[in-house]
Amino acid sequence: MSTTPDSIGKFPPNWTRRHLLDLESLSAEEIQLVLDYASRFKEATGGCRTKLSVLAGKTVANLFFENSTRTRTSFSLAARRLGGDTVDFSSSGSSLSKGETFIDTARTIQAMGIDLVVVRHPTPGTPTLLAQNLEVSVINGGDGAHEHPTQGLLDILSIRERRGTIAGLTVAMVGDIAHSRTARSNIWGLKKLGAHVILCGPSTLVSKDWEQFGVEVAYSLDDILPRCDVLNLLRIQFERQYTRPFPSVREYALLYAMNRERLSRAKDDILIMAPGPINRGVEVTPDVADGPHSVILEQVTNGLAIRMAALWLCLGANAKAATESQR
Ligand code: CP
User: Fold this and answer.
1) What domains can be seen in the chain, in order of their start residue?
2) For range 274-293, the mean pLDDT
3) CA–centroid distance, residue 324 to ligand 1 (Å)
């Protein structure tokens, strides 16, 4: 890799992960390290707008088997802002339709000289399967309802930037917890950094079983609202549901949508977050989504910073492992 500017610093000796597959297996120190490097990259690139050349000569492949706006675009931009090249693969129009297996497809793309794969797939565990079968680094861009580690990290970075710390905060995730990979990554990351996490939504979407992970489960947003420092409003993922989890969208919005009236009963400095895409009028009303408490677009910018850090760290660890295996 090219010379790293002083503002980023040397490659951290305590980062050894070639892949970023989840937040469950990361330590609190590793999570803090990614956040710290994301902040450095954000500053060194003027808020993720200017270029560095630390990934010159490296190629990142986006293998997306589900739709995406934020994740796919920001991984591409992050790689290019760091001087790398990118290639986008979509399953539609590919040779998968001719019977080529998923692993053969990934190995074919690897053979074209790429260095890192970002994969999004509806099946949980797909990124791990790729990491076991490829020599290049793998980053999970969302696998079914399992995890979305860079989303969890960018959410946590956005909170840390506004509050300075995560420890001691009460963070509620509201909505479709059952189908949310974002919720799972946030739970692991926030708990490790010392937050109190509340999961809130209809009982059909928030099981009491979650309590075994050390989180609070609540069914009334109005009851928990005065205690919350952060609300992360999750989209109802109708596309992953086989039966309707509540009688009507109108009833859901009545009970769980963050609106102006609820905001008046929340803490003065509450942060309103959403991983996106948002459904205006369902989980959040437009005036709240676009209002002064909302950090939804800051989350998007921080997605670039986190993905710059994740690419640089995983590629650096892979290069280090390759050098050491040659000794
Ligand atoms: N939050 C998120 O993963 O958005 P996309 O589906 O647009 O990538």
Assistant:
1) 28-147+301-319 (3.40.50.1370), 149-298 (3.40.50.1370)
2) 96
3) 36
